[in-house]
Amino acid sequence: MWNELLIALALMLVIEGVLPFLSPDGFRRTLVSMIQLDDRGLRLAGLVSMLIGLTLLYWVH
């Protein structure tokens, strides 16, 4: 179980690093637009992200 959790964490870090590596300016603009979101918008973005992740996990598994 711990092995799979560490693999998932490593993959998450790799995926999170792709955008700043490929397009630092685009990543910076994305962060600025996220900072300007209110709490409700940020929570909604987090919820959508979690639902997409759960759907993908269900589909793959």
Automatic annotation (TrEMBL):
It comes from the Bacteria. Keywords: Membrane, Transmembrane, Transmembrane helix. InterPro entries: DUF2065. The chain crosses the membrane at residues 44-60. This is DUF2065 domain-containing protein. It comes from Thiohalobacter thiocyanaticus.
